[in-house]
Amino acid sequence: MFYKTKSLNPLAFFQESTLILRALSFMLSFVLSTFVFTTPTFAAGVEVVKSKNKAYMSASPQRMQESINKAIEVIKKLKVAHSEEENEKLSQTLYTLLSDIKSEDDYAKETFKKMLKEVEGLDAVFKQRVVAMQAEYEKRKVKLMNAMESFISEHTGNVFVKWYYALFGNSEAEDLNTSIYENSSHQKFDPAQMPFELRKAVPIKPKTSKEEFISQGLINQPLPHYAALGDFDYSTLADASNPEYLAQSDEVNITQAIQNKAAELDYDAVQIYNFVRNNIEFVPTWGAVQSAELTLGAKRGNAMDISSLLIALFRASKIPARYVHGTIELSQTKVKNWFGGWENINNVLTFAYSNGLPAMTITGGGKIDAVRMEHVWVEVATDYYPSRGAKNYKADAWIPLDAAYKQYTFHEGTDALTASGVDINTTLQSFIDSATINENEGSVSGMDSTIIENMLMQAQTNLLNH
Q: What is the pLDDT of residue 76?
């Protein structure tokens, strides 16, 4: 596309531009000075502006995505032949959107700085994730901006804009994959919104006395109630006859999925406990986050969530169960292992505090000996003597069960290729050698596919045996 223009004298142009800019600068300074010295509520106005600016910044990711979506639509249109007048309008729109994206980019940079500051002191993996996210954002942003500049330069009728991008812009049009920028998800991209929000790591001391637990409503004295339960007699065990210990709640929701799992486990107390302990992963957060059904489906949850699932399965099996909220002490070695194999106990506690978990260290001789923390587990009314819950005839004890606390043994992953016992290179060479190659016609035929099939069958057998 060609444009007929008058000859341009760059030196004269910049001299004239400088004069214009100076004049505008003087006028702007005069207006601002008049406003400041003649408006009595200017200071109050500044506070309002600060408040609005915070809200404006929080909405930046949404504005950024909206501008990107519009830019992609314009680029798609510019890739198709239009009239010169239509292309000019589209390039002007793209120029405005480019300015908007550059403005929002400043907020994105501030957000990444904030995120890097928040993960200071945590394990290196947290910082690595933020840095990787920032690098991917920068790569996509630069590629998009270069493409926008190229399309603006190609289709604009503004001589100055064309000349500017010829000197400072991207000289070649990018082969832009627009699909990676399109907002196909209902969730807007926001670098400040992680799967969990890192709150300030403010230590919360665990409760250590009965009075503290009572003040928080975590200890109750249920009135004696009695109920019938078929063949399982628990009327002689204190509190076991309270109907509350068989009832549903928001967390202990005995849904069809819970009933099906209880039936699958034969309504057996031992099987129920082993299933939850061995199959539900512990997450080091605090408070009731999920219901029993959600925990069963997610196969993970914190101490409260796991306890809710355990109680729901017991109650679905007509076995009385209740929460126990208390404070425990563990060695720092066990805490680091339990929370996921951490190396530094201080990092563990910082992470725990950011998730609202009440905890504190117990020191001795200038070093950390143990960690004291609040925890939630379960008590179940069962026939413990002599079968240890294997057979329930008459409830004789409240047995504490903790399915959330675990200790792990970490192993190196299996090398699947070595375990398969297959020589990939030899197999592929045999596959190639089985072909008939006609160089004159440029064709390949007769490849023996059974060579690959036999290799896969052998690999599958070896892996199963391994």
A: 81
